[in-house]
Design a protein that fits this description.
This is Nucleoid-associated protein YejK. It is found in: Cytoplasm, Nucleoid. Its main location: cytoplasm. Belongs to the YejK family. Keywords: Cytoplasm. By secondary structure, this protein is an alpha+beta fold. It folds into 2 domains: 3-194, no CATH class; 196-302, no CATH class. Helix content is 39%, strand content 27%. The strands form 5 sheets. An 8-stranded antiparallel beta sheet has the order 2-1-4-5-8-9-3-10, sandwiched between helices. A two-stranded antiparallel ribbon has the order 6-7. Strands 11-12 form a two-stranded antiparallel ribbon. The longest helix is centred in the C-terminal third of the chain and has 21 residues, at 218-238. The radius of gyration is 25 Å and the shape is elongated. The relative contact order is 0.11.
Length: 334
């Protein structure tokens, strides 16, 4: 991930209603192994957080960040000036939120694959200990990526396209509640454009419907489910979206367009690229079992709705019988 520009500013602010102070850096950070490690750690932590996805609010007067960013990308303003102006704006918004706490604001413009990204994060330190070269134990401060709660990432290449998506900004959902994250969301001018958990649920529902419609054998269905989960989970870990045509090729290499065409023909309303929601993915697995000539398998998210298990009587109840199975039973009775 080549780093093109980066800088850190410090906002001194306590949650006591007192004015905040900006300590701005006057020059960009040099690209060093330490900075590269910091970006890698930032992305690893960021990718593991629940996020919302969206785009810039069109009200540039209320949310001017996108205007300043465009000026920087167009060469009308250098990176240092852009970042200081943005940090000053963030400081002002912090002062209006009594719950906010200052910290080091990191801006990094970097390239990953064929796309440019801007990552912005409010970083905090944790206190620890270290062993010095003279083998003494001494206190040590370090950035605590485990406490990363306010950060955003902008796909600059997507945003600058003629027909950008509605998900070129990702934003960490505030752990401490919406109020704490509000001022940071307003700082970016982030407007939610896609519901990652809802889109992921719809994709999984479409996949379940597809498997049912194709009447795959139990082992085939299990393999295809594992393929989907593995691919989607890897995309989530790397911070990349699920691409429907790529997923379709993985699900069935002999018919690489089959699943993609099924989704489009059934009109599930899915975007071609879906931000994966890790929590939803973790809930999606298949239960399967075979004994005495009976074979049963179903997706775990159906348990409690279409499928119910009575533990006391060891009884499984299916509320919606698959059409193919229902037709076979009916023909047997004739």
């Amino acid at each position: 991930m080549p780093i093109l520009h980066s800088i850190v500013h410090l906002i001194d602010k306590q949650p006591d209603g007192q004015p905040a102070t900006l300590h701005g850096r006057d020059s960009e950070l040099a690209v060093t192994p330490a900075l590269e490690d910091l970006l890698e750690s930032l992305n690893d932590s960021y990718n593991g957080k629940p996020k919302s996805w969206g785009f810039f609010n069109a009200d540039a007067e209320t949310y001017p960040f996108s205007v300043w960013l465009a000026h920087y990308l167009d060469g009308e303003k250098d990176f240092v000036a852009f970042s200081r102006q943005a940090a000053e704006h963030l400081k002002t918004l912090m002062e209006g939120n009594n719950l906010s706490v200052g910290g080091h604001v990191l801006f990094v413009h970097y390239r990953h694959g064929e796309s440019d990204y801007l990552a912005i994060a409010l970083l905090h330190h944790s206190e620890g200990v270290s062993v010095t070269e003279s083998l003494d134990v001494a206190p040590a401060r370090q950035l605590d990526m485990g406490q990363l709660h306010l950060a955003a990432r902008i796909d600059l290449s997507d945003w600058r396209r003629e027909d950008p998506s509605r998900q070129y900004i990702s934003f960490i959902k505030g752990k401490g509640g919406k109020r704490i994250a509000d001022y940071f969301r307003d700082f970016i001018g982030h407007e939610e454009g896609i519901d990652a958990s809802g889109e992921t649920r719809t994709l999984l529902k479409a996949f379940s419907d597809y498997v049912e419609s194709e009447d795959f054998a139990e082992e085939q269905a299990r393999e295809k489910t594992e393929t989907l989960i593995d691919y989607a989970s890897n995309q989530a870990r790397s911070g990349q979206p699920i691409t429907l045509d790529e997923l379709s090729e993985l699900v069935d290499e002999s018919q690489p367009k089959a699943f993609y065409d099924y989704i489009r023909n059934k009109d599930y309303g899915l975007s071609s690229e879906i931000p994966p929601d890790k929590r939803t993915l973790h809930q999606f697995r298949r239960f399967a079992g075979r004994a005495g000539g009976l074979s049963v398998s179903f997706d775990t998210h159906l348990l409690g709705s279409q499928v119910e298990y009575d533990e006391e009587n060891d009884k499984l109840t299916i509320h919606k019988v698959p059409p193919a199975l229902r037709d076979q039973i009916k023909r047997r009775k004739e």
